[in-house]
Specification:
Oligomer: heterodimer
Structural class of chain A: alpha+beta
Helix content of chain B: 25-40%
Strand content of chain B: 15-25%
CATH class of chain A: Alpha Beta
Radius of gyration of chain A: 14 Å
Order of helices and strands of chain B: HEEEHHEHEHEEHEHEEHEEHHEEHEEHEH
Strand order of the largest sheet of chain B: 4-10-9-8-7-5-6
CATH superfamily of the largest domain in chain B: Type I PLP-dependent aspartate aminotransferase-like (Major domain)
Number of helices of chain A: 4
Number of domains of chain A: 1
CATH architecture of the largest domain in chain B: 3-Layer(aba) Sandwich
Number of domains of chain B: 2
CATH topology of the largest domain in chain B: Aspartate Aminotransferase, domain 2
Order of helices and strands of chain A: HEEEHHH
CATH class of the largest domain in chain B: Alpha Beta
């Protein structure tokens, strides 16, 4: 049995306590909300798409530290990248939390390594990515 | 009656020997499901070797039938009702759905009102939403005050046909004034259904004294198995209910295109009965008698209850309502309940986080979720101390 404290890397706690890009985004061109009916967590991701680039991103989240931190890191990574690059990141992150690939290409998001051992908490980290994909029109 | 103290009760529960992340288990999730004593497990293993009840006439079948009817007598005695008023179901949820559908289809129509409260578990709310929508009836919700008490004086009982209420809230741990409510319901010409899922582990139940018409509970909240429950229905009311589920065991005669039905509990027990679960429930009732639950165990429970409340307050937590039984829901500043549950688990403390299937009540307290600790007849001061230490350690991760 893994120690559940491994879920709470100090970077995750920092993003929960000092979230980047949290709040509304009045200029948003794309937005979607994802929820987890099992636990009640709700995450909204908003993007400003301009000339094929994600020019700005923001989130609002009601949920645990894992879902909030993942949303915060996602918005940081999204700004300045393309929708396709973000889709690629989401796919890699998905495989990473399931233990299928390493986190070498994930940068700061690799601190979610702890959720691999806790199946019930993987959904928390993935929730903002589901919202982001829906915002980009991927359902 | 064998009355035992905490130290001699604990070895009755094999699950308490579980090591969690290298720590002793402090099981504070009895409100979700109570641990089962070895006598219940043994009774279920014995019942697993029996035949099919109510059908065949060989020895193993006769023993199965006898086990069920003996359990029906035990449940009747436990609730203060008659055996022919005791219907076995798969749990409280199925019991309430049975009433909503069987009674609702026969007795609810446009202009009629069902009254429930803001603190109901979804299982005593959603079935009423469904049947009221289907029958064109109105569902009226009694609000809850800060203390967790239902304010029935703030709803009109005009046109009420049924009142559905939890005996004990699974979030606030408050006790509804059932006897008083029964008088008011009767005066309005309405029936009273009581969801006893949380009550049976903490309060002795006497349906005659309560004056209700239906009482539902689940075996697994009372040291018995999951998948097994009871609906007690007052005999005179039971006689007015058409069957809900059709099948074997509930019929008097069957022709190719029509059937006639049995009376009493059998009418509502279509299909082969859950012999294993029902035997487990009977053993659980025997266990509660042997330890004098509600009597001898009450002092231990009261101490644990007070200790849990004090631990939450010491951690700066907010308690939802003013619990009257040892079911304490709380939240802590700047830590989400799911993170509380995961970090408590790291310390060997089993507690529950979420909306506890009471989303409207959480909305009333301005929260999406809470953490909850609850007490069983095996809970002691060491469990409370382990919980208090776990709350203190939360601040190492979330300063």
């Amino acid at each position: 049995m893994s120690d559940p404290r491994a879920l709470y890397h100090e970077t995750i706690v920092d993003h929960d306590r000092n979230p980047r890009h949290e709040g509304p985004l009045p200029a948003a061109t794309h937005a979607a909300t994802a929820d987890n009916p099992l636990c009640g967590d709700v995450v909204t991701i908003r993007f400003v798409l301009d000339n094929g680039l994600i020019a700005d991103a923001a989130f609002e989240a009601r949920g645990c530290a894992l879902s909030r931190a993942a949303a915060s890191m996602l918005t940081e990574r999204a700004i300045g990248t393309t929708p396709d690059a973000l889709r690629e990141l989401a796919s890699t992150f998905d495989q990473f939390v399931q233990g299928d690939v390493s986190g070498a290409s994930l940068g700061e998001l690799a601190v979610f390594e702890g959720v691999r051992a806790f199946k019930s908490r993987r959904a928390c980290a993935r929730l903002p990515f589901h919202a982001a994909l829906a915002a980009l029109g991927d359902g | 009656m064998t009355v035992t103290d905490l130290a001699t009760r604990r070895p009755d529960f094999p699950a308490l020997a579980t090591r969690v992340h290298g720590k002793r288990l402090a099981y504070l999730d009895t409100a979700a499901t109570a641990l089962r004593p070895q006598t219940v497990i043994d009774a279920m293993v014995r019942a697993a070797q029996l035949g099919a009840p109510n059908r065949s006439v060989h020895v193993l079948a006769e023993e199965a039938t006898a086990a069920i009817e003996s359990a029906r007598d035990d449940v009747a005695e436990f609730l203060g009702g008659r055996p022919d008023e005791v219907i076995f179901t798969s749990g409280t949820t199925a019991s309430i759905n049975l009433v909503a559908h069987a009674w609702g289809h026969a007795h609810l129509g446009p202009g009629d009102v069902v009254i429930a409260s803001e603190l109901e578990h979804h299982s005593n709310l959603v079935p009423w939403q469904m049947i009221c929508a289907e029958r064109g009836a109105e569902l009226r919700i009694a609000p809850v005050d800060d203390a967790g008490r239902i304010q029935f004086d703030r709803v009109s009982f005009e046109h009420a046909k049924l009142v559905a209420v939890a005996h004990v809230s699974n979030v606030t741990g408050t006790i509804a004034p059932i006897a008083e409510l029964a008088r008011r319901a009767r005066a309005a010409g309405a029936l009273l259904l009581v969801d006893g899922a949380q009550a049976v582990a903490h309060l002795p139940v006497d349906v005659a004294a309560l004056g209700c018409d239906f009482y539902a509970f689940s075996a697994h909240k009372l040291y018995g198995p999951t998948g097994t429950g009871v609906l007690w229905a007052r005999g005179s009311v039971l006689a007015t209910l058409p069957p809900w589920q059709g099948g074997g065991g509930m019929i008097r005669s069957v022709a190719a295109t029509s059937s006639t039905y049995l009376d009493g509990p059998a009418r509502f027990e279509a299909g082969t009965p859950n012999v294993i679960g029902i035997a487990g429930l009977a053993a659980a009732l025997a266990y509660t008698r042997s330890v004098d639950l509600y009597g001898h165990t009450a002092a231990d429970e009261a101490r644990a209850h007070a200790g849990l409340v004090a631990a939450v307050r010491a951690a700066g937590g907010r308690i939802f309502g003013e619990p009257e039984v040892a079911v304490v829901a709380f939240d802590l500043p700047r830590i989400h309940p799911h993170d509380v549950a995961t970090l408590a688990d790291a310390e060997g403390v089993a507690l529950r986080s979420g909306h506890h299937c009471a989303a409207p009540l959480h909305a009333r307290y301005g929260a999406a979720a809470s953490s909850r600790v609850s007490v069983g007849c095996y809970t002691g001061a060491d469990d409370v101390a382990q919980f208090a230490a776990a709350l203190a350690k939360l601040r190492e991760v979330f300063p």
